[in-house]
Amino acid sequence: xxxxxxxxxxxxxxxxxxxxxxxxxxxxxxxxxxxxxxxxxxxxxxxxxxxxxxxxxxxxxxxxxxxxxxxxxxxxxxxxxxxxxxxxxxxxxxxxxxxxxxxxxxxxxxxxxxxxxxxxxxxxxxxxxxxxxxxxxxxxxxxxxxxxxxxxxxxxxxx
Length: 159
Fold this sequence. Notes:
Elements: H1 3-10, H2 15-33, H3 44-51, H4 66-74, H5 76-100, H6 103-118, H7 129-150
């Protein structure tokens, strides 16, 4: 990328935003070098000194974007698998929601969506966050199964 574009994208006046933008641009440049297989799980921290664009001085350990992180570290095939799994999640959950209009299921889907949106400026691979993400997926699956079995004749709400 021409330096004028990079400086325009990273000139936010805020050091943190600038570092995040430079991290993303550095990550994209590294992805272009190895788009299919990536560099290996958890490799961003060790790659950063070699891929860092001029001005990136923060010693962060992740690209602060989950999609970019998957693609950089695990490759496009892993990213495609992740997108397919997310699509299956939404398909199953929203299909059941259309049938039953269950508020608990809607809340779980909203939480899942919120975590995905947040992962565009952070990572889901942070201890605590990844467990909550997995818990939301598991609770959604349990809720969908429970809703299928009860056919709306139960008064109790299983979470």
